[in-house]
UniProtKB/TrEMBL annotation, chains A, B:
Protein name: HTH gntR-type domain-containing protein
Signal peptide: none
Xref: Gene3D superfamilies: GntR ligand-binding domain-like (1.20.120.530), Winged helix-like DNA-binding domain superfamily/Winged helix DNA-binding domain (1.10.10.10)
Organism: Rhodobium orientis
Gene Ontology MF terms in the entry: DNA binding; DNA-binding transcription factor activity
Domain HTH gntR-type span(s) in chain numbering: 21-88
Annotated keywords: DNA-binding, Transcription, Transcription regulation
Amino acid sequence: MPVAEPPLYDLATAAKNGGAKTMIEAVFSRLREDILSGRHQPGERLRVEQLRKEFGVGASTIREALSRLMSESLVTTEGQRGFRVSAVSLQDFRDIAEMRKILETIALRSSIEHGDDDWEAGIVAAYHRLSKVEERLADKPDDVASEWGDLNQAFHDALISACGNRWLLNFRKILHDQSNRYLRLSLVDTTAPRNVHAEHEAIFKAVMARKPDEASELVGTHIDRTVGVIAKQFEGRPEAAE
Amino acid sequence: MPVAEPPLYDLATAAKNGGAKTMIEAVFSRLREDILSGRHQPGERLRVEQLRKEFGVGASTIREALSRLMSESLVTTEGQRGFRVSAVSLQDFRDIAEMRKILETIALRSSIEHGDDDWEAGIVAAYHRLSKVEERLADKPDDVASEWGDLNQAFHDALISACGNRWLLNFRKILHDQSNRYLRLSLVDTTAPRNVHAEHEAIFKAVMARKPDEASELVGTHIDRTVGVIAKQFEGRPEAAE
DNA sequence: TTTTTTGATAAAAACGATATTTCATGCTAT
DNA sequence: ATAGCATGAAATATCGTTTTTATCAAAAAA
């Protein structure tokens, strides 16, 4: 009996560690991260046969994982032409940012209106953790960058966690991830701006003071700022192909 | 050579007629319609083996079609426990309606702002067709109900067709289909209210006069009305299970 | 040259079979 | 009587192969 080709890494154990119950979910998560991180470039073809060997799983497992990634518009497919990573464009990012402003604002207003003591406590805790890391950020930027990313996300999640509308939260999450993909593709150092902590502090105070207009305004400008950064990246790069 | 089990209907030819390029797309479309129409009840298990025989295709084809239906939240899955039709609840419908009001309003405002002559022409045409059918609707309701549904959708699509934000349009479409599922499940006769034509006329006029506030208000109340209808349906039916 | 046709190759889609897991049923021990 | 365990049937998830389709390049025709 010939020995099977060794897969590039052990997906089965990685799956259990990641909390995935099935191989499909494990492949899904892994591919998702690879696309969001830019390891798979926009527009790149995702060949089932190739991925099959890479992960050491069957073809239909790969296909099903790719199909599920279509939910978040991270993967597209057309007729008999296989799968590709979703393309990017400046216009697309503008649309994403526009939608984010709308949804993030509404979610925040809803949370401010309905949030209870637990909600406030969660924000305080998340803000505290984030602040601690941001203190260290000035000294050793590369060291805590990854940690900052997680805590930053946790803070923003905490802000809107009292919004009960699941559809709103779902759409917001999709857009948030998409936006992050653009930032990571553009190698934007999201921690670079000096005023990042000041912004968080301002948002934090406005929310705790239950001032919806002020908080919305701050979040809106926060999102607007990213558009300018990405727009610069796209200048001088007319089109991207496979 | 034994003759294969005859499938319940010829999917391959139905696929080509429906414009589907692959079996997966054909199964996808068919299942989608079956769920939206209520032929598959909320919460119902969708057994792969059963569907496989019904459609006369392979198991992975079914699985992939089901996976893609997760994009629109029409199907859910939970590790090793198969697929089921998404459950329904009054709260879910309220969330959907709330989101629809927001997105529909924004899309309409954007269209009114950016719409050109072609956009106006499209609305006029769609409105005209819809009006013609609504005249006949009073006499022979059952006869033209299906046609009215299509034209009604076409009219509302035309209204927002000048909104360039693809994400907005995508989310709106998902919510619109979800909303329709609730209405169809509740056996609501969407053509019943006498004032349906009057509403459309009012929206039409407000849009053509480029009055965004007025048009948004009208669309908002149009959506609000459905919530009342669905809420009645849910009263007296505590929970639904498999 | 430019356009068509043809053939070869690579990839995607679809299938059928196998291995695992879940769930329900009935049995046993306390 | 009931909680817990064992057992088997049903259904899921997964795999490797077969069939179909698209792509590309070279040859033939215009």
